[in-house]
Amino acid sequence: MTQHTPPVPASAPEGLPTSLAALRATEHRYRTVHEELRDNLLAALAQDRPRFPGMVGMDDTVLPQLERALLAGHDLVLLGERGQGKTRLARSLVGLLDEWTPVVQGCEIGDHPYAPACTPCRRRAGELGEDLPVTWKHRSERYGEKLATPDTSVGDLIGDVDPIRIAEGRTLGDPETIHFGLVPRTNRGILVINELPDLAERIQVSLLNVLEERDLQVRGYTLRLPMDLLVVATANPEDYTNRGRIITPLKDRFGAELRTHYPLDLADEIDLVSQEAQLVATVPRLLLDVVARLTRAVRESPAVDQRSGVSARFAIAAAEHVAACALRRATLCGEEEAVARIGDLETMLPTLRGKVEFERSEEGREEEVLAHLLRVSTAATYREYAGGLDVSGFTDRIADGAQVETGDRVCAARLLEQLGPVTGLAAVLSAFGLDDDPGPAQAACAAEFVLEGLYLSRRVGKESVPDGRSVYGGAT
Question: How far apart, in whole angstroms, are the C-alpha atoms of residue 274 and residue 396?
């Protein structure tokens, strides 16, 4: 799924305290990250405000579990197949942090002015006292994310000796020679480790203290930095057992394991595609319905390897491809309005084949399988939208000898001209949700959808031409 990272404001609002003394003079109180998340979540619940914007289809399943885990102060493992929005969900947690939080100015790990932890900050606090300089960090800067690739090192996560600082004359053993890794740099924030099972087991060991004792140790230094952060890990169930695993001591330290899922309802699937797809042309909702049904059919097909899942990105890419087809056709035809048609969906099958893992027995039949599932999905959508409609005007035109050619180079006006005047087209447009000031492109979309539905229900014939065109007409 598309990720949305909030922008970092250029600067903090004016009037915020800039010294420890000024900060103490306000009502500000120090809270741990877990306390901060809990307080802000409770406030959002009390006011019935959105807590996890952009998450679709999880309101009654995953999100209540997540809220309970946050209220309990637990670190999390989000377990689910690809494209279920695990990273998106983790990133949405940033919205539950305070918008601005005070930190010691210049501190690498964002120490709170009331409780400086690193050696330089403690020294400065001792020297400057109440004049310790304070700056403010936006919540979007308190988020760290790491993809757990096999080459990730302990130094990447925790830290290591900085040879440049040694070359400058500092001695080994001096805590200020340490270059901090991602974990300490996310102190007082949210740390997300994607695909945690892919992290080498010996590297996972370095996180044990972070999750339990809430501190970190770097090499042989006599240094223990207290860490204040929420740790969220994501994992794929297949990776969990086959490609890698979360070591037992680390798994035991996570407070909650949440199982994510694909949208359970068709309406949620459609809403997800509508929300995430970047469409360059109009794709009517009934076509998004076909895309959503196709996605669900692929997930349920015995020809597809269900262990790897069928990502929501499958449906999103399909909708974007269909919109691109419409834009291309409108440009070639010189049309002002670009509206997708049902025939455009057939052109997306070759490009979507690579987004699905098929069973080995289906090798060589991938497009055939997808084409069959597309026909089934189109027929189901046609029954949903056109059930009870009088489409005799279309069948009468075909019975009178009309033939309608369509394809990625057939303009809307040309399609309608071939079909001629049809009784009941206005009712069809209304049933398809295309009756809001419909133009030729929308009328062509509705007409072609009806023709395809009639073909799939064996009421009209259809002949496919090798150059991508199709001709409706004649007997089945």
Answer: 36
Structure confidence at residue 361 (pLDDT): 86
Same domain, 409 and 441: yes
Residues 353, 386 share a domain: yes
Domain boundary among 209, 241, 259: 259
> Which pair of structure tokens corresponds to residue 345?
């969906």
How far apart (Å, rounded) are the C-alpha atoms in residues 259 and 77? 8
Tokens 């001709």 belong to 471
Predicted pLDDT of residue 271: 95
Q: Residue 215: what pLDDT? A: 83
Domain that holds residue 352: 266-472
- Residue that is written with structure tokens 């189109």 in the block: 378
* Domain membership flag for residue 124: no
Residues 342-391: pLDDT tens digits? 999 998 888 888 888 888 888 888 899 999 999 999 999 999 999 889 99
Distances 136 to 3, 12, 37, 96, 399 between C-alpha atoms, Å: 26, 6, 18, 17, 74
Per this entry, what is the length of the chain? Answer: 476
Contact status, residue 57 vs residue 174, Cβ threshold 8 Å = no
Last residue of a domain, one of 244, 259, 274: 259
* 118 conformational bin, left if phi > 0, alpha if psi -120 to 50, beta if neither: beta
CA-based nearest residue to 274, from 318, 324, 310: 318
365 plus 403 within the same structural domain: yes
In a domain, 307, yes or no: yes
Structure confidence at residue 2 (pLDDT)? 47
Count of the separate structural domains present in the chain = 2
- pLDDT score recorded for residue 10: 62
297 and 371 in a single domain? The answer is: yes
User: Could you count the other beta carbons within 10 Å of the beta carbon of residue 198?
Assistant: 18
Give the pLDDT confidence score for residue 245 in this predicted structure: 84
CA distance 342 to 449: 6
Q: Are strands 143-147 and 189-194 parallel, antiparallel or unpaired?
A: parallel
Residue 109 lies in a domain: no
pLDDT score at 471: 93
Helix (H) or strand (E) holding 36: helix 33-46
Please report whether residue 19 resides in a domain. no
The two tokens of residue 161 are 């000796």
Residues of the chain with pLDDT under 50: 2, 242
